[in-house]
Amino acid sequence: MRILIVTPDYPNTLNPNTHGFIHSRAKIYKNVGNHVKVFVPSGRQTLLTYNYEDINVIKASLGQLISVVNDFNPDVITVHKPKGAWCSSLMKVDRPIVSWIHGAEALFTALHHYHFPLSVRDSVLKGISLIIDPIKLGLLRRFLLLSTAVVYVSQWMKTMTEKYALVKHPSSFVIPNPIDVDLFRPLNFDLLEKLNRGVSVRGLGWKYGIDIAIRAYSNLKETGLTIVGSGSLEKYLRKLAVICKSNVKFIAKGFPHERLPTLYGEFGYFVAPSRTEAQGVAMCEGMACGLPVVATNVGGIPEFVKDRFNGLLVSPEDPLELRKAITLLISDRELYVNMSNNAIRFVKDNLSHPKIYQKEYEIFKQAQEIR
């Protein structure tokens, strides 16, 4: 099968961490024998082509999409994080289109904690979003109705999209982002040795709730948290950690994807104190490495973290409840070991590359038949 992936961005050697969840899919498709090409719409008038880990990528204006389609002749086009502005160009393409909804492209961002409340700039952006987002969602509705099928990364994401974009596509599916369980697996089976070391890998933005974790670790001696990531709130969060005397440290650099399992191997559990989360790919990768999760019961998280099975769920915006859950996790060895084993098994059974590919391949075949 020939698969063309359209996405707003894609990894390259200078920025290997952007949209890795889309690159994972491209590698899956290619590794099982499909022909794969990636198209990134941009403002470029000239066509830029490069290869990233054997995936051919084209960056060009939307006006050049038709010629790319004619040259590549795909059996199906998959569109990730679609934008309404792409609709007119893709309407000219006589191919099955399968659209993927991942997050902000289908949400009222002002209602889902995308804006830092203590920032004047973010307050202005929040006000602007209340005007722009209805237009964005109207264009998205038009795009989804054009699509042959629509895939959501969680049931929560599907519910939110149908609510905000006012569309229930007849061919809708929920398929999470896949996890490479050959790469993400336990590297150190002496879990109890690292039991008191927590990790949180995420962007330092308001919606990810790192400030809640910092408050939860205030003067906490029994365990500490390493926060891996960067973002606009780094300075604020570092200052908050000092004020709260929190047992946290920051690693403000990106890790190549293939090095993350080694990183996870140094820790005993994963913390995801999000205010909004469609799935939580890094969280699921940590689970595949045997890390039980302590997470907030928001968004799509409870579809992956089952309370007291492979992690602990707490109320959002509650540092004290988060602290109590972390303390319980590190103090109950039997519960910890059971949740660690269950986390590994859950990801293998539900999110592994073969499991996800089989579901997506069936959708591609159905899309071809519908078209």
Overall description:
- The protein is 38% helix and 18% strand.
- With 371 residues, the chain is of the alpha/beta class.
- The chain folds into two domains: 2-177 and 352-370, Glycogen Phosphorylase B (Rossmann fold); 191-350, Glycogen Phosphorylase B (Rossmann fold, 3-Layer(aba) Sandwich).
- The chain has an eight-stranded mixed sheet with strand order 3-4-2-1-5-6-7-8, with helices on both faces. Strands 11-10-9-12-13-14 form a six-stranded parallel sheet, sandwiched between helices.
- Helix 1 (20-31) links the parallel strand 1 and strand 2.
- It is globular.
- The two termini are 15 Å apart.
Structural class: alpha/beta
Judging by the overall fold, what is the CATH architecture of the largest domain?
3-Layer(aba) Sandwich
Average pLDDT over all residues: 94
Radius of gyration: 21 Å
The CATH topology of the largest domain corresponds to: Rossmann fold
Query: How far do the termini sit from each other?
Result: 15 Å
* CATH homology group of the largest domain: Glycogen Phosphorylase B
